[in-house]
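Moderator note: this is an archived Q&A kept for reference. The question asked for a predicted structure of one protein chain; the sequence and the answer are reproduced below.
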Amino acid sequence: MAGHDGYTRYTTRIPDALYERIKAAAGEKSVNAEIVATLEEKYPEEVLSAEAFLDYLQRLTGPMSMDESVQKEEFLNHVLKRLGVGLEAQLSGGDIILCPTKYEGE
């Protein structure tokens, strides 16, 4: 099986007139490149500022229900993964415990 190149192939149908407008807008680029650029503009990647992250960390401390703890831990680990810091977090008794990321197969 070939390696994954980071793209999902997705077939879609669009009206002929829309295709022609996209093709004209693309100019020298491919129609696919124009569609991807337009979608990236419409749906930008979520950006978390350092200030927002620190504010979030401050709100993680203190008593919380088990459901709140699980939800906050999952979000924190999502953010840490996106930051690529090689850490994962566990919330325990209102404390944040950071550990090196465990890789599959360990």
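Archived answer notes: The two ends are 24 Å apart (CA to CA).
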